Amino acid sequence: MRLHLVSKNVASEIAAKLCDSVGQTLVGKSKSTFKGLQSIVKESLEAQLTRILSPNRRVDVLRDVMTANESGRPFTVVFCGVNGVGKSTNLAKICYWLNGNDKRVLIAACDTFRAGAVEQVGGVPLARPCRVFCFLCCCMAH
Fold first, then answer.
1. How high is the pLDDT of residue 137?
2. Span 1-40, pLDDT tens digits
3. N or C: less crowded end of the chain, CB within 10 Å?
4. What sign does the dihedral 96-98-102-104 (CA atoms) show?
């Protein structure tokens, strides 16, 4: 299971912790069928992922935006991930929601290996115009 998680871009340390915690839930349990064991593993994995991904504090983005603005600081959100995980889609949703709450949005597009970041973000449907900047990060493999 650890190798499968790592192959799906889960950090190796997190994959190991997940496997260890799932293993702990299996200790002392016996199931007569593979289906029963599979459901225990799935439930345990869901519980551990929920625990890891749940914030330690209540998240109120509008409150955090206003607090940052009152301090004279911008409120910054970073969307990062591998191709196809929905970064642009979620960016559009957050921008639309912030615009609907009378907040100004500045989008800075960045891409490591291609120059299409600005074009992709430029196609994001928003309630009102946003300023879009482009940063191109060049990473060289050694």
1. 42
2. 889 888 888 888 888 988 888 888 878 777 666 667 788 8
3. C
4. negative
Q: Check residue 138 and report its DSSP letter.
A: -
Q: Answer for the pair 120, 107: CB distance below 8 angstroms, yes or no.
A: no
pTM over 0.70: no
How many Å apart are CA 1 and CA 12, to the nearest integer? Answer: 11
Q: Are 49 and 82 in contact (CB under 8 A)?
A: no
Tokens of 13: 């340390």
DSSP 29: -
Report residue 21 CA to chain centroid gap.
22
Does residue 71 register a pLDDT over 90?
yes
| Cα angle for residues 48, 6, 140 (degrees, 5° grid) | 130
Residue 107's DSSP bridge partners are 132
Q: What does the DSSP assignment read for 69-131?
A: HHTT---------STTSSHHHHHHHHHHHHHHTT---EEEEEESS-S-HHHHHHT---SS--E
Q: Which helix (H) or strand (E) holds 134?
A: strand 131-136
